[in-house]
């Protein structure tokens, strides 16, 4: 299978190098935004409680990004597309993006990232950046090493470059292009990966096959070593589009050898994952419905020798209904993502969204699971939870989420919406303390109220103002029953230019 894809990539590169010296047509598009943030109590810890260490206090900052996409029309039906981001940073931040120090210390949840080893936010251009300064520590040998999470922002970062060829039987894409975008926005990330994709339309049907190279392990294990120590992903999808509805299903197979360093070491293991993601979208007059689900299974750790194999099984579901009465509209969202059952030591039922880097584009609220907020602030809401938990608030995991909203568009330029969200964990997590498993105090993330108003100044320039209030749930106490938590409120505004 891999030989077939390599030959296909080679053919695409030949087509690229055979392009004429001057393109027939060049088109530019992109966006620029500036966000202002004020978070009164990002830590969720009582600001008057000084009994334990912890960051407290209000945070205010500005964040921005310039994105430019260029499409070169080389011939009729043949295109070369590139995209870069520039000055993607908090105002006043002078650090370079996505740099991770060597000898990086990984958190306890590192095993959940077989598709992105070594783990950095640079694996995908939409991954959240850390806002804290570079942190170093000294190990027992007196060597200065970097701490996990050191993320910096680059001045210019090219993220996409790919060929699009509209062939007589379908569309071929080769290079670094959009990935993790299927069906609804429920598990979308709009990431970038090197891939080869072929989409074949047959009437209302579309058939898609895609190969993605997620990690080239030879760079880490050495040429001539374990040459299969990379991570490959294979997709097959089918979609049917009618006039008022569409539906489809994506099947994905992931084969990771990122942790396969030797055939004889007990720490060497392989990872495989099979995933199915069905979805639908339908419009019935003023009523719009959409939904998406996922089921994944496989082996998280399959050891060559020694060790105990660990399986994977994961479920998620999402349903959104919206009724448009013009100028008013209202709707509801219900979503579920399975969590890890501590009683099943040989199976992991959660953390798949993190491993698949899926769901950053889905931003149902201004605080809870909003990647824009975590990108600007440099991390998720934490309270007294375990160290690895903050990542879960960037990627939904172990959650029942419910939301109702009502909005109004009094004029074509205005859109005002009020949202109420409630979330709790289906599985109460825990940590090991002195070899004893201790559960969290509670399973409620909290209740959030959002008010968002957007005004279109020009057709390509809009201004948005948002306010959020989070009634902090006792989930954020972690295992500390005596922890003093506090609610958080946040104000933000954003100016967005598209071109």
Briefly say what this structure is.
By secondary structure, this protein is mostly beta strands. The chain is 7% helix and 49% strand. The protein has a single domain, classed as Porin.
What does this structure look like?
Helices cover 7% and strands 49% of the residues. The chain has 499 residues and is mainly beta. The protein has a single domain, classed as Porin (Beta Barrel), CATH 2.40.160.100. The protein has an 18-stranded antiparallel barrel. Strands 4-5 form a two-stranded antiparallel ribbon. The protein has a two-stranded antiparallel sheet with strand order 19-20. Strand 2 and strand 3 form a beta hairpin. The chain is globular, with a radius of gyration of 23 Å. The chain starts with a helix and ends with a strand. About 12% of the residues have low confidence.
Q: Structural class of the helix and strand makeup?
A: mainly beta
What is the total number of structural domains? 1
Mean pLDDT: 81
Tell me the major beta sheet. Answer: 18 strands, antiparallel, barrel
Uncertain segments: 96-153
Instruction: Report how far the terminal alpha carbons are from each other.
Output: 41 Å
CATH class: Mainly Beta
Which radius of gyration do the C-alpha atoms yield?
A: 23 Å
Helical residue percent band? under 10%
Strand content: over 45%
Q: Choose one word for the global shape.
A: globular
Supply the CATH architecture.
Beta Barrel
H/E topology pattern: HEEEEEEEEEHEEEEEEEHHHEEEEEEE
Q: Say how many strands there are.
A: 23
Helix count from the secondary structure assignment: 5
Reported by name, the CATH topology is: Porin
């Amino acid at each position: 299978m891999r030989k077939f894809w390599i030959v296909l990539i080679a053919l695409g590169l030949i087509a690229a190098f055979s392009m004429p010296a001057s393109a027939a047509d060049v088109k530019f598009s992109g966006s620029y935004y500036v966000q202002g943030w004020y978070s009164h109590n990002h830590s969720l810890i009582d600001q008057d409680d000084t009994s334990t260490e912890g960051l407290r206090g209000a945070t205010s900052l500005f964040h921005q990004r310039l994105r430019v996409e260029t499409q070169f029309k080389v011939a009729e039906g043949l295109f070369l597309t590139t995209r870069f981001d520039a000055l993607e940073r908090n105002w006043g931040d002078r650090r370079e993006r996505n740099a991770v120090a060597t000898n990086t210390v990984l958190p306890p949840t590192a095993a959940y990232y077989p598709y992105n080893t070594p783990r950095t936010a640079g694996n995908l251009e939409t991954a959240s950046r850390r806002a804290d300064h570079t942190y170093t520590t000294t190990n027992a040998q007196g060597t200065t090493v970097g701490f996990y999470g050191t993320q910096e922002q680059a001045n210019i970062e090219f993220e996409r470059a790919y060929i699009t060829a509209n062939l007589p039987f379908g569309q071929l894409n080769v290079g670094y292009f959009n990935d993790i975008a299927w069906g609804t926005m429920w598990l979308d990330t709009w990431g970038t990966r090197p891939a080869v994709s072929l989409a074949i339309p047959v009437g209302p049907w579309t058939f898609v096959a895609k190969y993605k190279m997620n990690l080239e392990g030879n760079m880490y294990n050495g040429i001539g070593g374990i040459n299969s120590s990379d991570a490959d992903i294979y997709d097959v999808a089918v979609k049917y589009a009618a006039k008022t509805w569409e539906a489809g299903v994506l099947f994905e197979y992931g084969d990771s050898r990122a942790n396969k360093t030797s055939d004889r070491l007990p720490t060497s293991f392989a990872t495989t994952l099979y995933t199915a993601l069905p979805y639908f979208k339908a419009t019935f007059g003023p009523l719009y419905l959409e939904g998406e689900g996922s089921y994944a299974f496989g082996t998280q750790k399959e050891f060559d020798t020694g060790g105990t194999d660990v399986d994977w099984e994961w479920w998620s579901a999402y349903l959104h209904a919206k009724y448009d009465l013009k100028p008013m509209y209202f709707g509801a969202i219900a979503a579920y993502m399975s969590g890890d059952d501590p009683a099943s030591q040989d199976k992991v039922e959660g953390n798949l969204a993190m491993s698949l880097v899926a769901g950053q584009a889905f931003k149902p609220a201004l605080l809870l699971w909003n990647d824009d907020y975590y990108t600007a602030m440099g991390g998720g809401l934490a309270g007294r939870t375990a160290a690895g938990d903050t990542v879960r608030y960037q990627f939904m995991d172990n959650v029942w989420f419910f939301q109702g909203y009502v909005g109004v568009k009094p004029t074509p330029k205005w859109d005002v919406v009020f949202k109420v969200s409630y979330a709790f964990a289906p599985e109460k997590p825990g940590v090991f303390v002195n070899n004893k498993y201790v559960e969290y105090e509670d399973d409620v993330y909290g209740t959030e109220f959002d008010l968002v108003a957007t005004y279109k100044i020009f057709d390509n320039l809009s201004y948005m103002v948002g306010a959020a209030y989070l009634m902090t749930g006792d989930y954020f106490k972690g295992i500390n029953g005596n922890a003093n938590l506090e609610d958080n409120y946040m104000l933000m505004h954003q100016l967005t230019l598209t071109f």
